[in-house]
Amino acid sequence: MSLLPPGINLVRPPAGAEPHLAFETDSHDFGEIREGGAYPLEFKFKNDGKGPLKILQVRPACGCVLGGVEVEGKTYQFGDPIPVGAAGVVKGTLKTAGYSGDKHTQVDVLSDDPSLPATPESPFGQKTLKINAKIIRTFEFDQPR
Length: 145
Known about the structure:
Layout: E1 21-23, E2 27-34, E3 38-47, E4 53-60, E5 65-71, E6 74-75, E7 81-82, E8 87-95, E9 101-111, E10 126-136
Parallel strand pairs: 2-10
Antiparallel strand pairs: 1-3, 3-8, 4-7, 4-9, 5-6, 5-8, 9-10
């Protein structure tokens, strides 16, 4: 069963014209942060392959991460070709309201890069971006009367 958005056709790139989704880093550690805030993050990438790249979907592992994709400073439409050499960013926001302690989550990026590992949802091209934080909850005490 594919979890790709409707209208996205999954076609293997031709031999010799394979894209390559290269991230500067595949993890982000916020360290200690306060509960209740929304913390932005970015994962920068580039197509350093030999053919156009397609990002098919971005799936956060939980509702505490929201995000989107931009390529060359413009909002990206899933399935559109990303030219060789073009750069982009997977943007996100970690929402911390109601959480405390160690938080480990991820965002899966499905693409047509055949060098990335296959999954049941994506026959080729899934990259996992990891997000970590230690969320500190501030306690409020009633004031004496």
